[in-house]
Amino acid sequence: EVMNKLDVLRLEQGQMAHSEEVRLRNKMEAMEDQFVERHSEMLVELDNIRRENEKIMKRKRAEDIPNAFLCPVTQEIMNNPVIASDGHTYEKAAIEEWFGRRKKTSPLTGAVLRSFKLVPNHSMKSLIQEFIQNNQ
């Protein structure tokens, strides 16, 4: 009978140990799931922060670009600056598109243009290229 009680006690302890093991395993799995979920959320959050930082840096760089380097038509930095007969410098493709729409006026002043001849602005192109190289 003493053996029986010891066996029952051992059995109960074994069942309790097994229950505790199952409970701890379940808790550990739940914690792993939470970790994976939180890790995923943090990666998304980090990606959002990186994108926002990129936008801020773009705005900052855009603020640092001298206005003279921006095409008055597109408001983008010029790659191929040309001087029109109004004396202003434009991105070649932008002013050609302006003329292609049968516009005979200056995009800046609205004055009728005497000529549609475009002259490359080599000085401006050099300044823009130097600026880009120094600010990359």
Tell me, briefly, the overall form.
Answer: rod-shaped
Terminal Cα span: 88 Å
Lateral strand order in the biggest sheet = 2-1-3
Low-confidence stretches: none
How many DSSP E strands? Answer: 3
Helix and strand element order: HEEHEH
Structural class estimated from helices and strands? mainly alpha
Mean pLDDT score: 87
Main sheet properties: 3 strands, antiparallel
Helix content percent band = 55-70%
Estimate the strand proportion.
5-15%
| Global Rg | 36 Å
Total number of helices: 3
Notes on the protein architecture:
Helix content is 62%, strand content 6%. It is mostly helical and 136 residues long. A three-stranded antiparallel beta sheet has the order 2-1-3. The radius of gyration is 36 Å and the shape is rod-shaped. The chain starts with a helix and ends with a helix.
Please name the defining characteristics of this protein.
136 residues; mainly alpha; rod-shaped; three-stranded antiparallel sheet
SSE layout and pairings?
Blueprint: H1 2-64, E1 81-83, E2 89-91, H2 92-100, E3 119-120, H3 122-134
Antiparallel strand pairs: 1-2, 1-3
In short:
By secondary structure, this protein is mainly alpha-helical.
